[in-house]
Amino acid sequence: MMRGAQRWFWVVAVLAGAAAPPAFGQASHTLAEREAVSNERKELRENIEDIRKEIANSEKDRAEAVDVLKASEQAISDATRKLAEIKARQDQAGTELEQLEKQIVGREAEMGKSQKKLAALLRRQYASGGVTPWSALLSGDNPQDQGRTLGYLGYVSQARTAAIQAVRVELAQLQDLQDDAAARRAELDELAQQQQAQRQERVRQRAERQRVLDEVGVRLTAQRKEASRLTTDEERLSGLITEINRALEKQAAEAARKRAEEARLAREREARLAREREQTRLLAEKTAREIAARQARVAAQQQDAAQAASAMRSTFEQRDGGPASNPEPVAPAVPAPVLPQETVPVAAPPVVPTVVASLDPARRGTTPEAPAKGNFAAMKGSLRLPARGDLTGRFGESRPAGGTWRGVFIRAPEETPVHAVAAGTVVFSGWLRGFGNLLILDHGSEYLTVYGNNEAILKEVGDSVAGGETVASAGSSGGQPESGIYFELRHRGSPVDPLLWAKLR
User: What tens digit of pLDDT does each residue of 267-302 get?
Assistant: First the structure.
């Protein structure tokens, strides 16, 4: 009796287990994370664009000679970035085309095998004298021989049909592969045309920049010697970095608020599930007890019926003066009562809030599709400078036009690759007076790196980059007299000596 009760208890417990929410699939979780990252990038870009507009509005009445270079230098940067994107797409399409061509070769080999099998079947049928089911029936041979011949011909027909179908399938798959390969070739041709157009545009913009330089060369030379201009440039960059840090802190605070809200909802959900599990457990125990009691009543009824049958047998024996000659009457079995089906309430699984990627100061930029930044402070003394070249300006040294260097200037030829010194997230990508095409990376823990005077910027705001990844190319944008890269490292907005952090090449 107790074993039956235990069995019913476990059945109810299994049903209670259905109240547990199903595990979310990895694909949906990844999709939610990607969407969250996309929203964070969009928000960051909007914030940076607002900062850029504020800077432009505050300086619109103070035009400088270098401002006339802005349009051409930005166009050169855009054309170079698009060329890099086209090159990446060409590499991907080329790899896909190579894989498709290998698959085509393999598919053609498989189709050749299928064709050989079909040809062999046709040859065997021809060698048999071209016997068909109709000719076999009309041959007048022994019916048993005719039956065997027809059976053989049936097998041959099935094999031939299968071989023909295999060839058709191979042909269809081969056609699909060839269509895909043709699409990749067409894509490569289109990319080649785009690449040529972008190269021509870059050449045109470089010529335009040189023309503007020739026109304002004297004014640029004069302004480079103004110590006040250098001070203004430094203040402009510091102000930009301050605003960027505020934007990042605001975004981090909002992310922290969302995480706290999600944690609260998760606690409430867990408490609700715990209550539901406890209620289900109590219901299971109650149901098991009721089933045990019913089984006990059934057993008692069966025992009473057996006792009644025994009493009837004794009565018959006493009346007849001995054991009855008739077979012993058997008490009819009392059927077990049909138990009503218990309905166990099953709670619908609540919606689990998706935890999005955080943007707190220690983890900004860490996304499912980007390398983790790690502890930037622990990298002190091991960083590589962003480009190869000659150090012509060092942190703290006097500048020829007055003031002191707040970073380092690395003299290098145009188009020299500029690498990210560590993994991070792009928080500024654009043109800034005094620094030309400027890129700023956030490495978490309030560490930023600044890359100025680039000819081209290859990344946009919100992009995540790995340490050592090419993010720009050296140049002389922003009125810089020589080609190279201006590099700063800032912590909490204040510049620090990059050479104390760098491992010189």
Answer: 899 999 999 999 999 998 989 898 988 888 888 888
111-136 residue pLDDT tens: 777 777 777 767 766 666 555 554 54
Report how far residue 104's alpha carbon sits from residue 111's, in angstroms, rounded to the nearest whole number: 10
Cβ-contact 4, 290 below 8 angstroms: no
Of 483, 486, 453, 451, the residue nearest 470 (C-alpha): 451
122 neighbors 114 (Cβ within 8 angstroms): no
With the CA atoms of 382, 488, 76 and 50 taken in that order, what torsion angle do they form, in degrees rounded to the nearest 10?
A: 120
Instruction: Give helix then strand counts, H and E, for the chain.
Output: 6, 10
The length of the chain is 505
Detail the DSSP E strand segments found in 414-503: 417-419, 424-432, 436-442, 447-457, 464-465, 470-474, 484-491, 494-496
Over residues 70-78, the mean pLDDT reads 88
CB neighbourhood size of 390 (10 A): 9
Residues 49-70 as b/e (b if ≥16 CB within 10 A, e otherwise) read eebbeebeeeeeeeebbbebbb
Q: Mean pLDDT for the chain?
A: 75
Structure token digits, residue 214:
């020739």
Report phi then psi at 457, rounded to 5.
-110, 130
Rounded distance, CA 198 to CA 81, Å?
10
- Rounded to whole angstroms, the Cα distance separating 137 from 132 reads 9
Adjacent-strand bridge partners of 450: 440, 488
Backbone angles phi, psi at 471, to 5 degrees: -120, -15
Please list, in sequence order, all residues whose beta carbon lies within 8 angstroms of the beta carbon of residue 482, skipping any fewer than 6 positions away.
Answer: 392, 411, 476
Produce one character per residue of 435-467: b if its CB has 16 or more CB atoms within 10 Å, e if not: bbbbbbbbbbbbbbbbbbbbbbbbbebbbbbeb
CA distances from 32 to 192, 354, 426, 463 (A): 35, 7, 22, 18
Non-local CB neighbours of 245 within 8 Å, separated by 6+ positions: 446, 448, 492, 493
Q: Phi and psi at residue 142, in whole multiples of 5°? A: -55, 135
pTM exceeding 0.70: no
